[in-house]
């Protein structure tokens, strides 16, 4: 607690915890379908501020249920957010967040966001995880061949000893058959 207060006094806000969440929404209005996706994810009552993709050193990942309990209506929520929407019947949409955590204590990691059409959950999940891992790997000077399959690169990342873990959260949906707006969202919510 003293660390948090001291950091705030200096004007530095570094999240101590983070959780992942996802949701989908369907409505005749695009904005309302987005709000319903946020509601499904449990973060609709917050004022979302999109941030870029650095996973803070020492940040702890908590289960969504624990993170959601800490939220208050109107709270400013810093999020890495991916979203996609369609009103085309049966069109596959996807939103995904990936994380690459470094092995070294005190080092930062990377979060990545991906929004796509026509991709399966598995393919989008592998892509977003690879994106985060590649960004982190390049900070350690690892040479990355983008033409190599992700499975091979993942093994290289782990063998290098720099990347300890990757993970992802993905939300997919097919466009509503009646042509109403369908929105998917995936988020990493940062807590102070």
Mean pLDDT: 92
CATH homologous superfamily grouping = Pyruvoyl-Dependent Histidine Decarboxylase, subunit B
- In this structure, how is the largest beta sheet organized? 5 strands, mixed
Strand content: 35-45%
Tell me which CATH architecture applies here.
3-Layer(bba) Sandwich
| Dominant shape | flat
* Count of β-strands: 9
User: Gap between N and C termini, in Å?
Assistant: 10 Å
How many domains? The number is: 1
Class inferred from helices and paired strands: alpha+beta
Structural summary, described in words:
It is a single chain. This protein has 192 residues and is of the alpha+beta class. The protein has a single domain (16-191), classed as 3-Layer(bba) Sandwich (Pyruvoyl-Dependent Histidine Decarboxylase, Chain B). It has 5 helices and 9 strands. It has helices spanning 2-9, 30-41, 64-69, 121-139, 150-160, and strands spanning 17-27, 47-50, 54-55, 60-61, 76-86, 92-102, 109-117, 163-174, 181-191. The strands form 2 sheets. The protein has a 5-stranded mixed beta sheet with strand order 2-5-9-1-4. A hairpin with a 6-residue loop joins β6 and β7. α4 (121-139) packs parallel to α5. The longest helix is centred in the C-terminal third of the chain and has 19 residues, at 121-139. The chain starts with a helix and ends with a strand. The model is unreliable at 1-7 (pLDDT under 50).
Q: Which tags fit this structure?
A:
192 residues; alpha+beta; Pyruvoyl-Dependent Histidine Decarboxylase, Chain B; five-stranded mixed beta sheet; four-stranded antiparallel beta sheet; 5 helices; 29% helix; flat; disordered N terminus
């Amino acid at each position: 607690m003293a660390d948090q207060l001291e950091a705030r006094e200096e004007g530095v806000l570094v999240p101590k915890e983070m959780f992942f969440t996802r949701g989908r929404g369907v409505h005749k209005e695009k904005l309302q379908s987005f709000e319903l996706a946020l509601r499904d994810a449990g973060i609709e009552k917050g004022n979302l501020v999109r941030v870029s993709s650095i996973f803070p050193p020492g940040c702890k990942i908590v289960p969504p249920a624990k993170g959601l309990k800490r939220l208050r209506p109107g709270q400013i929520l810093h999020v890495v957010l991916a979203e996609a929407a369609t009103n085309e019947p049966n069109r596959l949409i996807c939103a995904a967040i990936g994380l690459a955590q470094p092995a070294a204590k005190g080092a930062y990691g990377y979060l990545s966001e991906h929004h796509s059409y026509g991709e399966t959950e598995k393919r989008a999940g592998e892509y977003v995880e690879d994106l985060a891992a590649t960004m982190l790997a390049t900070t350690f000077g690892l040479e990355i061949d983008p033409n190599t399959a992700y499975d091979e690169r993942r093994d290289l990342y782990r063998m290098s000893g720099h990347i300890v873990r990757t993970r992802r959260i993905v939300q997919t949906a097919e466009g509503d058959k009646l042509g109403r707006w369908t929105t998917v969202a995936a988020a990493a919510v940062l807590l102070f």
